[in-house]
Amino acid sequence: MSLDGAFLHIIKAELAESGLIGARVDKINQPSRDEIIITFRAFGKNPRLLVSANGNCTRVGLTSAVPENPKTPPMFCVLLRKHLRNGRLTAVTQDGLERILRFDFECANEIGDEVQNSLIAEIMGRTSNIILVDGNDRVIDSIKRVTSDISSVRRVLPNIGYVPPPRDDRHCLLDCDVNGVVEGLEENWNDKTLLKTLEGVSPVFTREAVFYSGGDKSKLAEFLSKAKSVLTENKPEITLISEKGEHPRARGAPRDFCFVDIGQYGGEMIVSRADSANGLLDGFFGVKADVERLKQRAGSLMKTLANAYERVQRRLSAQKRELLDCAGRERLRIRGDLINANIYRLEKGATFLEAENYVTGEIERIELDARLTPAQNAQKYYAAYRKADNAEKMLSKLLADGERELTYLESVIDAAERAFAEDELNEIRRELNAAGYIKLPSAFKKSGREKPLPPIKFTASDGAEILVGRNNRQNDELTLKIAKSDDVWLHTKDIAGSHVILRCSGRAPVPETIAEAAAIAAYCSKGRDSGRVPVDYTFARYVKKPSGAKPGYVTFTNNKTLYVTPDEEIYDRLRVDDKLK
Question: Distance between CA atoms of 51 and 69, rounded to whole angstroms?
C-alpha cells in the first residue's frame, strides 16, 4: 500500500476545510528520526499536523495521537522551531497529483522582519523527505540529507536551491481529457498500463478501474470520469479495505484504502466507508507508526539482547557437545579395571592389551602407552574417567544455568517488544545494567524517571482488579510484594511473558474472571500471535522465588492450566487508561 497523489489531494482539501489555513504554529516536536508533529493554534483548538518520511508508514495529515517525545529534541526539530515558531500557515499547495504537499508559512526572522518559509513534504515511500526552504526556495535543511553519493539525480542539502523530484510525463485526472486518454491506450491495456499513464494513482485504483470496466474502454472512460469528478468537486467515497480472516488477530486488520468505492475484492475483504481521509490515515498508520517509532528507540537495546542471546546459545551448544564426549566415561573406568586384572600378562613397553570385557563379554583391544608401566597405564585411564565424571557434573550445572539465562533473556526481549514508551525501555536498560549485560552512562543514571512505573491495570467484567507487570523487576515486585496470599497468580506455561495478578480481596475467584485474566496473560506474552496458549494459575501464596534467581524467575505449586486464545479485544476493553497505554 502507498499513499498516492489523489488521496493527498483529498487530504489537502480537508486541511483547508478544517480551518488550518491561517492558524499559527504553537509547538513543533520530532518524536522519531523521520517524523515531525506541528501543533497549531486555531479558533480555540489545537490541531496537530503529522508529517512522516518513514518508508514503512509515509504520510501527512492531522492526527489525534500524542506520541512520547525524546527528552532532547533532534537538531532538525530545533531548526524548525527556530524558523517556523509562531509562523502563520498561509497555504497548502500541490502540483497536480504529485505526491508532494507544500506548506507555506509567514514567519518572523531573528530581527523581527517578516519572511516566508515553506515546509515541503515529499511522500514517496522509501525516498520520502521533509524539506525546509526559504522564500527563495533555497534549502535550509531536510530531515534526510541527500548527497551525490545517495542520488545522482538531485541533491538535497543546506544552502542549495530546491529542485523537485523528476516528474514522469503522465496525465493528471484533474485536468486531462479522459476520453482522449482512454483512446490513446494500447490495445492490450491493463492495470499496470494505467499506472504508467495516470499521475498520482495507486495500484488499488487501477485494479478497480480494470475490474469496473471489464476491458471495455467506454466503461473505463465512465469510471475515470467519475473519479475525476470526485477529485475536482471534492466528494470522495473514502474507502477502507480490511482483512476478512478467521483468526481474531487478522480479522479487521487494515490493508489498503482509496478515494473511490471498491468492488474488486467481492467477499474476500471487508470494504467500509470512512468519514474523513485524515481520520482514516491516522487510524491506518497509527499502530504501525507507534511500533516503528519504538523500534528506532529500542534498536540498540534489541541488538544488545539479540547478541547476548546468541552468545548464550553458542556456549550451550559447545557445552552440549562436551557433555556428549563425557558419555563414554564408564568405558574408561572399565579399561582401567581390565588393565589391573591382567597386569600379570603385561610387560613394560606393551602397546596394547586384548582382554575379555566383563560387562559385554566381548574381547576388547585396549591401547597402551609404551612409555608407561602397566600400572601407570591403568592410572591414566582412571584419571581420564575422573576428569570426564567431574566435567559431566560441572557441565550439567552450567547447562542448567545457561537454560535459565536463555529463559531470562527471552523474557527481557518479550518485555522490550511489548514496551509502549521510552520510560519502559529505560527500566529494562536499568534491569540489564544491574544484571551486568550493559553499562549505562552516568548521565543516563542521573536523568530520566527514577520512580518505577506502575503495573498495567485492568478491570474485569465483575469489577475485580487485574495487574500486569511491565518487565521482570516489576514482575517480582508485583508477585512477591504487591500480591496478597489469596490473590490469583497467572503466567503462560513455558512461554516468556508478564506476571499477572488477579486481586480477589478475600473473595473466591470467579471462573469467568480467571479466563479473562488468562486471556490477558496470553496476550502479554511471547505467544500473543498463537491460536491457543496454555496459562498456569495458582494462588500467590504458592509462588516462591529461589535464592539468587534472576529477576522474574519464580517457582510455584498447586497450579492448574487453562488453554486460552490471546484476545486483543479483551485487553483493550478491560484496560484502565494511563498515559503509557
Answer: 15
When mean pLDDT is compared across 86-100, 182-196, 235-249, 462-476, the lowest value belongs to 235-249
Residue 581 and residue 576: Cα distance in Å, rounded? 9
Q: Return d(Cα 458, Cα 287) in angstroms, integer.
A: 21
Q: Average pLDDT for residues 120-140, to the nearest whole number? A: 94
Closest CA to 389 of 335, 319, 326, 320: 326
pTM above 0.70, yes or no: no
CB atoms within 10 A of CB 524: 25
Least confident stretch, 20-29, 285-294, 314-323, 339-348: 285-294
What's the CA gap between 554 and 150, in Å, rounded?
Answer: 52
Residue range(s) occupied by CATH 2.30.310.10 in the chain: 5-142
pLDDT of 446 > 70? The answer is no
Q: What crossing angle do the helices spanning 374-417 and 422-434 adopt, rounded to 10°?
A: 160
What is the DSSP secondary structure assignment for residue 94, as one 8-state letter?
A: -
- C-alpha 571/C-alpha 256 separation (Å) is 25
Alpha carbon distance 537, 492 (integer Å): 9
Whether the CA torsion 74, 80, 86, 88 is positive or negative: it is negative
Cα distance between residue 208 and residue 414, in whole Å = 41
**Tens-digit pLDDT profile for residues 345-357:** 888 788 888 888 8
d(CA 13, CA 7): 10
Tell me which architecture the domain covering 5-142 has in CATH. Answer: Roll (2.30)
Which residue(s) pair with 475 in the sheet?
none
Cα gap 525→496, rounded to integer Å: 6
**Percentage of residues of the chain with pLDDT beyond 90:** 46
**First vs last Cα of the chain: how many Å apart?**
27
Please report, for the chain, how many H helices and E strands are present, in that order. 14, 22
